[in-house]
Design a protein that fits this description.
The protein is α+β, with helices and mostly antiparallel strands. The chain contains three helices and three strands; from the N terminus they run αβαββα. It has a single domain, classed as Resolvase, N-terminal catalytic domain (Rossmann fold, 3-Layer(aba) Sandwich), CATH 3.40.50. Helix content is about 50%, strand content about 15%. A hairpin with a 4-residue loop joins strand 2 and strand 3.
């Protein structure tokens, strides 16, 4: 799948930038994908925030928040 706007955004990222999305599923379809992206961004000095899930990689609870949000969403969808 081609994602030209995503590719453009990634090419323009600089240390100190913050990626903000309404929902984290706009960037990745699996928890693994999201964690991998956030680790890469963190190594670049870039933070990530998801408004709906309340994720903010500038704090230490970010990965826990991602996993919890994904689990709760899947649990709710099955109900």
């Amino acid at each position: 799948m081609q994602r030209p706007e995503y590719i453009r955004m990634i090419s323009e990222l600089r240390k100190g930038d913050i990626i903000v999305v309404r929902r984290n599923d706009r960037l990745g379809r699996t928890t693994y994908e999201l964690i991998k992206l956030m680790v890469e961004w963190k190594e670049m000095g870039v933070d990530f925030r998801s408004i709906s899930e309340g994720i903010n990689t500038s704090n230490k609870m970010a990965v826990f928040g991602i996993c919890s949000a994904r689990y709760l969403r899947k649990t709710n969808e099955k109900s």
